[in-house]
What does this fold into?
Amino acid sequence: MILIGQYDSPFVRRTAIALRLLGLAYEHRPWSVWADADKLAALNPLRRVPTLVLDDGEVLIESGAILDALDQIAGPSAALMPASGPSRRRALHVSALATGLADKAVSLLYEGLLHEAPSQTWIARCRAQIADVLDALEAERARSFSAYWLGDAIGHADIAVACAIRFLSEAHPRLWEGGERPALRAHAERCEAMPAFQSAAQSLQVSASPNAND
Ligand SMILES: N[C@@H](CCC(=O)N[C@@H](CS)C(=O)NCC(=O)O)C(=O)O
It folds into this structure.
């Protein structure tokens, strides 16, 4: 398998961490969505990462769909998403909040970098969405005293939350530092201490130039 995209993307990173936790070997191609756009377009017309190329050449896109396929490849006993029932719905809900937060954080970053006159309306909306999702996740996490969101084993929801928080803390430090969120902070610290997280990490490099790395 070949994973395309840089680890400063919360979506690429959650995919890499899942690959490692599932014990699936992969090659990493840290292509930039800007500088390597043509190479990327040949595989994925959206020019987005993560893009995953399976051993038979099939190309998977969209992190949620990629992770679903990886769980199936790894098998039910290793899968990082519960198979059914309330725990699956809860994990999907938490994952949707976390990846939605990451989407808003990326959007907020591009708004400032790529627009000559950023929309203050859009910026205020993204900030409010991010703050409200953080509050919702904090309240959810504070209700559970287990090591991970759904018990003693790490899952996709845990990874999604930790990757979103790391990206937010680098892209918009004031939005992360601005609130007391002890349960989320402890969650992120527990995850980031794991080798799978440490070995799939890249500090965010941002530049207003479309030729720069994403
Ligand atoms: N919903 C997508 C989001 C992926 C995404 O936003 N990736 C960013 C990098 S963090 C990207 O490819 N941006 C370039 C673009 O959207 O044109 C997923 O979960 O895979």
About this structure: Residues 9, 11, 33, 47-50, 62-64, 99, 106, 214 surround glutathione (CB under 6 Å). Residues 208-214 have pLDDT under 50 and may be disordered. DSSP finds nine helices and four strands in the chain. The first helix runs from residue 10 to 22.
